[in-house]
Design a protein that fits this description.
elongated, about 160 residues, 4 helices, 5-stranded antiparallel β-sheet, about 30% helix
């Protein structure tokens, strides 16, 4: 029909059949940022946010988000993730919390959606925990940086 894999010949949405694919080691890394006021970033860095340790809670939320991806995104396969790592780094020069997530597994389908979901949920958690002091925060630049494994092999973006 359109070259999209999630539609059948009639144009109906379907889950892709991956049963014939080989099990291979697969990884994906995604990134994104939350831009905020300098005072908000200082509160995060000094553990002064009333709701608690923003970076630790957002890291945990990102990991949980990756694990719940098939519950959030229609037609995503439930995956047995072997590893989910979420890193949050404060950058005072840009007034951002930069988020990177890497997901790994041995399976028949990739983990790009899980890495992107982890970044998205971590960013939303930063926003939620800090919105009382800075409603103007911006979540952005969420993108896939790298994927490897499967028939298509390695891909690098930026």
């Amino acid at each position: 029909m359109s070259g999209f894999t999630h539609f059948d010949a009639n144009g109906d949405a379907v889950m892709v059949d991956v049963s014939a694919k080989d099990v291979t080691s697969r990884t994906a890394t995604a990134a994104g940022s939350v831009v905020m006021q300098p005072d908000t970033l200082a509160l995060i860095m000094n553990h002064g946010v009333a709701k608690g340790d923003v970076l630790s809670v957002a890291r945990l939320a990102g990991i949980m988000g990756a694990k719940r991806t098939p519950d959030l995104i229609p037609l995503c396969h439930p995956l047995a993730l072997a590893s989910v790592k979420v890193e949050l780094v404060c950058d005072p020069e840009r007034n951002t919390v930069d988020i990177t997530a890497t997901c790994k597994l041995n399976g028949r389908t990739g983990v790009e959606m899980e890495a992107l979901t982890a970044v998205s949920i971590a960013a939303l958690t930063v926003y939620d925990m800090c919105k009382a002091v800075d409603r103007g925060m911006r979540i952005g630049d969420i993108k896939l940086l790298h994927k490897d494994g499967g028939k298509s092999g390695e891909w690098r973006g930026g």
